[in-house]
Amino acid sequence: MKTVLTIIVDNTPSLGIPGEWGLAIQVEFNGKKILVDAGASSLFLKNMEALGIDVREIDHGVLSHAHYDHANGIPAFFESNAKAKFYIREGSAADCYHKKFIFRKYIGIPRNMLRDYPDRIEMVSGDYKFMEDAYLIPHKTPGLDAIGRRESMFRKTALGWVPDDFSHEQSLVLDTDKGLVIINCCSHGGAANIIKEVKETFPDKHVYGIIGGFHLFNKSNEEIHAMANKIRETGIEYVCTGHCTKEHAFKILKKELGDRLESMKVGKTIEF
User: Fold this and answer.
1) Is the whole model's pTM more than 0.90, yes or no?
2) What is the DSSP string of 80-143?
3) What are phi and psi of 15, to 5 degrees?
4) Rounded to the nearest 5°, which phi and psi values hold at 84?
5) Burial, 202: exposed, middle or buried (Cβ in 10 Å; 0-12, 13-18, 19+)?
6) pLDDT at residue 1 above 90?
């Protein structure tokens, strides 16, 4: 059965449909419709309507990680869709901040979302199969709190501030006709690390593609080239990126990855 992805929200507008700093992707897979993230606002609803997609028909929701630009639209989704649960990584909470100088800015999920919609949220742990051939895979790479510190991202705990280890981030992995396809909307833990994690989780499967933002907008040219090399070394055949990758990093990735790389934009469809 064909797998079809439609970019609902991305930074790059297209077809006269606006974008925003955020991401939302509809996935049609094995007869079901999955919404991966819901952008930074209710814009995804207007964009779905413009693209001829009925939000009421979404069967499942997946939150890739607990940041506002992926989660702020979820309350609007619950008000518009009466049936779908959102699958969220266990341990996610309204506790994510970005530090700049001495200031900390809240960048997490809507503060009361977990309290207000307990019957619509499924907290998952470990390698989680939520439908046939569709899995939610957590990070398994040690030491990711070093990336959190590098990114000035912290979580507020009862014991004080700790660097984010992105334990709230997960990959949606689909077993398609072409092989495993990974969707990880910001890849804070590192795109190459994520590909490696999925390969190790499914050693008997072929990993075909990865789709999502790579959080390269604030990286040096050297860091971007290094990431491109690491992605190429995984042997992955298809890469589609946007959102927090941004244009400068995309140009460098394109030089390194060539035809296997495509860019996201609102309304883009991807078929496997």
Assistant:
1) yes
2) H-SSPEEEEETT--S-EEEEETTEEEE-SS-TTHHHH-GGGEEEE-SSEEEETTEEEEE---TT
3) 60, 25
4) -80, 135
5) middle
6) no
